[in-house]
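Chains adopt folds. We examine one example:
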Amino acid sequence: MFKSVTVEKQDGVAMVTMVGPGKGNAMGPDFWEEMPKVFAGLDADDATRAVLVRGQGNAFSYGLDLPGMM
């Protein structure tokens, strides 16, 4: 459904995992387009009581994907 994140829900907790392209879950155009949609959907879900945001692999995120944003 999303290119930059996965969303899993269990027992009222949503786990949003950053799976950005390339190295270190860099935050590129897909991330900035999708994150507001992800959180709007979680906010509208009354069953979601908590959200955990994490990065896939060894790093949370290296930050902004500069080449991807140019």
Notes: The beta strands are 5-10, 13-18, 50-55. The longest helix spans residues 29-44. The helical segments are 29-44, 66-69.
